[in-house]
Amino acid sequence: MSEGTALGVWRLTTALHGADGGPSGQWYRAQHALAADQAAAVLVLPRSERAAGVMLRFADQALDMGQLSHPSISVPSDSGVTPLGQPYMILRWAEGQPIVRACSHLPLRARLNLIVKLCEVLRYAHQQSWLLAEVDPGMIWVTPDQRLTLMGMGLMRMPDPEDPFERGMGLGSVPGYASPEALAGEPPSLGSEVFGLGALLYMLVDGRLPSAFGGDVDEASPSASWSNLSGAEQFSLDALLHKAVAPRADRRHVSAEALADDLRAWLAGENHSALTLNPMPVAGIGADAVDGPDTLSALPETATAGSEPRWSRRLALASVITATLLVGGWLGKQYLQGPATAQSAPTNTSLART
Predict the structure, then answer these.
(1) Within a 10 A sphere around the Cβ of 13, how many other Cβ atoms?
(2) All residues at 6 or more sequence positions from 336 whose CB lies less than 8 Å from its CB, including other chains
(3) In terms of C-beta density within 10 A (0-12 exposed, 13-18 middle, 19 or more buried), how is residue 167 classed?
(4) Rounded to whole angstroms, how far apart are CA atoms 320 and 274?
(5) Any residues with CB less than 8 A from the CB of 158 and at least 6 apart, and which?
(6) Which strands sit side by side in the sheet containing 148-151, from one edge to the other?
(7) Are 141 and 95 in contact (CB under 8 A)?
(8) Which of 277, 111, 132 is closest to 202 using CA atoms?
(9) If you write DSSP's letter for every residue of 181-233 in order, what string do you get?
């Protein structure tokens, strides 16, 4: 689409976010033809059967969606077809750029706080019987001063237990953000929403999605590349992330609100619910340690799927040292008791790895 293209009363002015499009379409800024002070965000969708389904779903939900009134939620207000036959949606204008790009120079605590803000926005949506059925980081915009806007294309009414299938199709979660049960064809739920938020947390903390770790995701340490974290802080954050993306929905946080509570607890240096499933092997977290320097400027890329977390290496080393001292003390005692006793020392000692 070129600058100046007319879409009803709107005129496209600028392609947004590097004009690189995205899995869900291309965003533009548009100006109202009759009111120079009115701007809108326009999402132009590719011509496809799925895009037609999106339009159908919008037509079905437009009236209810228009009742959502939150400063951090922008929902479609109009739709149509471009001169080239591409469907488009008109949304309230919002500043910012997609969250992953916006976080590229933010410290870890700021990134986690953005997810807390997103969960607070979703709390409002839940109270209005909506949930974020399709998680797409390209639909979450963040300004330089860390104000967040959810471009609400992925919002859906909570499924009716008696009729769980919504009319029409959605854009679909970006690959890597859809929960196992969603991929199996089950209707969206608070649990599938949590999985998508957990996958987004992985991306903001580690720079990779859970799917990048394959079957070893439970053993991965997404926080390992943040060298300003203590071993206990890494263990605690990893436990939180593992819970959020657990393959089974009943092992995850029950809602985005519960996930936000755990994030707040971690930021405050307190225990959280994930540690009841995977208890901390070291002393409690100190709040002063959590407030350590936030100096990393880019999404971490140094962690590898096969790398062992620092806290694990430290505990293993401590175990070896402790066991060595115990065995050495035992042998010394046997030597002082005389040769006959010393001969009974075991010839094959195995050290348990903690």
Answers:
(1) 15
(2) none
(3) exposed
(4) 28
(5) 126, 129, 130, 131
(6) 73-74, 148-151, 140-142, 97-98
(7) yes
(8) 111
(9) HHHTTPPP-HHHHHHHHHHHHHHHHHSS-GGGGGGGGGG--GGGG-TTS-HHH
Which residue numbers in the chain have pLDDT < 70? 18-23, 161-173, 280-354
What's the confidence (pLDDT) of residue 295? 33
Q: Which two tokens stand for residue 37?
A: 């002070």
Backbone phi, psi, residue 142, to 5°: -130, 135
Give the pLDDT score at 311.
40
How many residues make up the chain in this entry? 354
Considering only CA atoms, which of 64, 88, 72, 69 is closest in space to residue 12?
88
Token output for 221: 């340490």
Number of H helices, E strands in the chain: 11, 12
Nearest to 156 by CA among 71, 26, 62: 62
Sequence letter at residue 198: G
* 30 DSSP β-pair partners: 12, 40
